[in-house]
C-alpha cells in the first residue's frame, strides 16, 4: 500500500485530535481516535497495559492530575509491511500549575470501517539523558 497525501493528512489529524478530545473532556468521543480493540502501554506511568475502557477509567481517576494541555509535534509516519502505519509523534503535556513534561508516542494506526484509528499506543516518558552546557554545542 502506498500512503497518499490524503492518508498522511488524515492520520496527522487523527493524532492531533487526541489532545483536543482529552483536553475538552471528550473521553466519550475517544472512539473517533482509537479503535475499540486498541492497546495502550502506559507502563512508564505505572498504569501497565490498558484497553479502551480501562484507559477511560484511568483518565477519569487522574482527575485534576491530568495535564490540561496535550500537544503533539514532530509527527513521523512510516508504512509497515502489513499495511498499517507507524506514527512517532512527540508529546508535550502542560499541567495546571504551569509545569510541563515531554513524552514520545509510538503508535500504530490501521484503516478500519470508520476510517484510520490508533490500534496501539505506547507512551514513553522523556527522561533527561544528561545536561550539556552551551559550550558543548
TrEMBL record:
<dbReference type="InterPro" id="IPR037401">
    <property type="entry name" value="SnoaL-like"/>
</dbReference>
<feature type="domain" description="SnoaL-like">
    <location>
        <begin position="5"/>
        <end position="122"/>
    </location>
</feature>
<protein>
    <recommendedName>
        <fullName>SnoaL-like domain-containing protein</fullName>
    </recommendedName>
</protein>
<dbReference type="Pfam" id="PF13577">
    <property type="entry name" value="SnoaL_4"/>
</dbReference>
<dbReference type="InterPro" id="IPR032710">
    <property type="entry name" value="NTF2-like_dom_sf"/>
</dbReference>
Amino acid at each position: 500500500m502506498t500512503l497518499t497525501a490524503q492518508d498522511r493528512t488524515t492520520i496527522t489529524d487523527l493524532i492531533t485530535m487526541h489532545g483536543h478530545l482529552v483536553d475538552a473532556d471528550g473521553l466519550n468521543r475517544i472512539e473517533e481516535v482509537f479503535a475499540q480493540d486498541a492497546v495502550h502501554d502506559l507502563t512508564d506511568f505505572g498504569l501497565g497495559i490498558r484497553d479502551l475502557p480501562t484507559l477511560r477509567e484511568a483518565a477519569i481517576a487522574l482527575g485534576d492530575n491530568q495535564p490540561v494541555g496535550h500537544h503533539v509535534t514532530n509527527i513521523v509516519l512510516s508504512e509497515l509491511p502489513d499495511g498499517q502505519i507507524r506514527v512517532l509523534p512527540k508529546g508535550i503535556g502542560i499541567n495546571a500549575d504551569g509545569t510541563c513534561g515531554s513524552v514520545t508516542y509510538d503508535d500504530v494506526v490501521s484503516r478500519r470501517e470508520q476510517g484510520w484509528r490508533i490500534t496501539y499506543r505506547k507512551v514513553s516518558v522523556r527522561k533527561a539523558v544528561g545536561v550539556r552546557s552551551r559550550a558543548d554545542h
